[in-house]
Amino acid sequence: MKRMFKSLFALSVAGILFSCNMGSDKKKDDGSATLPGNTATSAMTEANTEVSNVPFDILTIYHSVKDYKVRRSAYDADLSRRKENGFTDIAVERAADNPNNIKIVFSVSYMSKAKSFASDPGLKEVMEKAGVTSKPDMKFWKVLGLNS
Q1: How many CB atoms lie within 10 A of CB 114?
Q2: DSSP H stretches of helix in 1-148
Q3: For residue 71, with 0-12 CB atoms within 10 Å meaning exposed, 13-18 middle and 19 or more buried, which class applies?
């Protein structure tokens, strides 16, 4: 459980940092991250060696719903289909400013199965019945490292 929390925390922080940097027009590269004697880089490398199971694949899904409780019931009922397709639940998140905006994060065992599952018309039907009101924004990622 502690490792899952660390993974979730690291993914959330990475997402925040990535989204914060998206609009930056200034290029900052002083080269310090690539210097062989850089102690910050050395510390990060040492911390990453403690984490096992890296790299791994994840899927994030962002969408809006009419009613979170209804969507959550449908999500919980669909667990067996997710497991059959190699998904492991990492997190279900609600936006702080709009609790009907949802983010779901899965660890993915088989990328090809996950992509097939994501494009399955049956998934669209399940989501519509669950009250999903927006087109799901699905993104596949490869986690290369985690800081502990």
Answers
A1: 22
A2: 2-21, 39-49, 68-77, 79-84, 111-118, 121-129
A3: buried
> Which of the residues in the chain have pLDDT under 70?
1-53
Contact at 8 Å (CB) between 64 and 134? yes
Give the model confidence (pLDDT) of 6-46 as tens digits.
555 555 544 444 444 444 444 444 443 433 444 444 444 44
CATH class, 2-18+57-143 region: alpha beta
Q: What is the DSSP letter of 34?
A: G
pLDDT of residue 93: 96
Residues 6+ apart with CB under 8 A from 119: none
Domains of the chain, residue spans:
2-18+57-143
